[in-house]
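fwd from M.: "can u put these together and see what the complex looks like"

so here's what she sent:
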Amino acid sequence: MAAVAGCGGSAGGGAVPSTARAGASAATDRGGPRPPAAQAAQAVQAVAAAPAAPAVLPGPARAEEEAGSEAVARKAEAARTALETARRWGLARLPLPAPQPPAGRPELRAAQGVKLADGLPPVVYRVPTEQPIVFLTVDDGAEKDPEFSRMAAELGIPLSTFVADYLARSDYGYFRRLSEQGDAVNNHTINHRNLKVLDYATQRDEICRQQDQLEGQIGSRPRLFRPPYGEYNEDTLRAAGSCGIEAVPLWNEEAFPDRMEYRYEDQRLHPGDIILTHFRGTDLWPGTMPDLLRKVVDEVTAQGFALARLDDYL
Ligand SMILES: [Zn+2]
């Protein structure tokens, strides 16, 4: 089993075997905006599946056919644009489209990768789903690279971020813009301390003060919280629940600009996996944040998965 040292520490206890877990998601197909890459991939399929038009059609049928041709042409144009965007960012291939998110967040049941306790927010290493989707989460907040947020937006890749105040406070505007483009900004405490060694009151201050800070800076109160280093105890969950946290997502993979590290023995992604990475620059990493996103998207696509929005499922 590979060691995964997210946020500079090991989370432990989250590894789950590669066998399929019980319980399907309550995902349903509903309307709504789709990321450009998803629209384009559908358009490619639609173009391929479009029947050949007859040579001549009478009046009303011809009008209908012309309208249909316009729709096909629009989809083809969207597909071309998405392919150009993927090439411009250096992707090996077009990202796979995420399915429509569930109409409501599915209720979590006890399962592999989910730890439930009465009255406490659930701890989730892996979201229960049988769909080929995984989730990208980005922690801490030191590196605020505008190319990274632009790349994610242009490719339609959803992010869920977990921000520590002491790293983010030099420019909360960066995270506000991420939030405005649809990427959730969630809680990762004020000072990024190991909560497990702190008393309840201090833990509560670290978590709940960051709830207030993010509500003020970003404009919405986080629903998700991730403890630094993945280290927590019951006090952590009680404190988080007391100031509005609904779930505590951890992770089973960690991504770097040059590699992915897996907790599974088969060294592969599994449906519902949560991938951890960080807002880090070339001072700490052998690549930029766009290099990192390219690595993640190519790896996820090559394994037949789509990146979906964690906050739609938890
Ligand atoms: Zn961290």
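replying to her w this: Residues 7, 139-140, 188, 192, 228 surround zinc ion (CB under 6 Å).
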